[in-house]
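Quick log. Single chain, no ligands specified.
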Amino acid sequence: MTEHAFARQIRPARPRLRTILGATVLAAGLSCAPVVLPAGSAFLSTSAQAADPMQITGTTVYDSTNSLGDTATLKSKISALSKKHNVDLHVVVIDKFENPSTSSSWTKALATKNNWGSADVVLVIATESRQAYFLAGSTKTLSSDQQTKVYQNYIKPKLQNSDYSGAALAAVEGIEAQKGGSSSGVVTGVLGVGAAATVGAGGYAMYRRRKKKNAQQQPQRSYGAPRNYSPIPEVPLEELRTRAGSALLQADTTMSHAKQELDFARAQYSDQQVAEFAQEIARAEDLMRKSFQRQQLLTDSIPDTEAEQRAWLTEIIDNSQEVTRIAQEQDAKLAQLRNLEQEAPQAIEALAQRLPQLRASVEEIAAQYRALKERYLPSALEPISKTPTLLESNMVLCAAEVEKAQATVATARSEAVAHLRTAEEAASQIQALGAAVNTRAQELEQAQLGLSTDLLSIQRDVAEAKSLAASQRRDDLGAVAAGMEAVLNQVNQSASARPNDPLTLANQLRQLSAELDKAMTNMRATRERSRAASQNLDRTMRSAYAAVNGARSYINNRRAAVGPMTLTAVSEAERHLGQAQRLASSDPLNAMKEANMAIQKATDAQNRAQSEVGNYYNNQNDRGGGSFGGDLAKGLLLGALMTAMNSGTSSWGSSGGHSSGGSSGGSWGGGFSGGGGDWGSGGGDGGSF
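-> predicted structure:
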């Protein structure tokens, strides 16, 4: 079964998923007075099950208490609200707020955990503690005054009657009214924002009866059991592309950050202690590969139906959300393992002691790069271009951040940890840049050594072509062979010159060999073609390794400047290279095809990345130009991209280059929707209802 045929076995439709890059949570919010309950109150004698902010996927309604009963009508109204006003309401019902324990902080933490953004609105109801909070991702979606009106006039009166399903439906009605829709009437019984209300024993008894009845009617679902998925509303295809692109970019960035944390933890502890984390991250990487393959299906030359496109885009969104969940979960566990808040002084001191070693590494790598520049042309060193500048910038950044960490560790531990993490990432970049230079040096040396062998091999092929052309009176083949002989002479001269670009020369030989094989296809038996493919495969694989490794190292060392299409291209290049490796011994003809595809995809990724990085540098120059010091390195660090995502300021322009601000663009048909939420102030008072 072909990949297209397999992918066309469309999975069941998934729910509408809004993936927004960076739902950042600010500390701002409404302060609420604590509720004082009388001694002997029914609330004090009831054991509440606390709930931490959880990851919610596949549904807009999450009810861990079974208090809402049948939610079909509610979900339908939420879907209609989303279609009409582009507002996504999430209703969450729990027993009690915990970790954090305040309703406002808990709600904001929930928004962050689920990457909800500016177009999202959330209503959280804690039934046991009798508290609720209503919050919009941005005041552009609902102003603070509008949020207050929705909560006080629509939601709260229902809550006071323990009508939780009615409160959720009232939230839809209230949002509809504030966005200009019709309303069947405004519920009265308004209390001021921040007011705390207590509920009598009669109201609580009604609530307990209602909850028990609903629990009897609705079967309990065990933890981790699959949820029923609703169909995705028919949104425009381009909007679905936008969401998929944003989701994939966020997932790749989040996972890259988790992998980096894994490397930090592995350096601090043993492989055995981080094996569980590595296994989960490997599972996330497999999902990423599948998503990139689906994206490749969407961009190849084979026409796809709209149903196929929607199915694949939905799969990308689903996979990306799962990757983000895994990566964030492992990231949090690794942070807990490292416990930097407690061990900050020791970690800072350890990195400070490494600074002289890092400085020596920077000088050694810079010297190696200068030696390479004497031997090879700039084109051969493009994947590691600007290495000296990036090395120095990261070294400056690392030293400066260590100094700041040392200065603040005694008085502001969290701030010191933030400086330490930036310093660690800069140190990691220095090591990565050094590894990239070493890899490129080895690839160039191997290519140079292989040129003489490749030249002899192709010269024999050209001689064979000339002989066949003469014996079979094929003037066309003779002309091809004569032209190739002239090119071979030029390559031979360039191979012995200094400086040169042996990888480019090897590519020229590979292309010559491919053209010669094509011209002689009808004159060779299948076995002979396989023999020729085996002979040519070595040089093609060398070119493929160099192209893929070069593109990947270039992208990894400039991660904050590249977009989703570039990541797709390099992932596809790695997939084709892996397939070529698997087929090399058993099927050299198809291995050759896969290796050539790897080269093509890697070249595409490299070109895209260079364009995006060029735009990034131009933007930096426009903002101040010239000498960056540590700022250049800091801007390209993965942490900078994570920060930009969390602040909602990163987007991808129509050319694929990086820009800041709003939404839109990219080959996906648009950038991220909404631009992230500020989650600053809500209309829910956070007190008891």
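The chain has three domains: 19-217, 237-424, 443-627.
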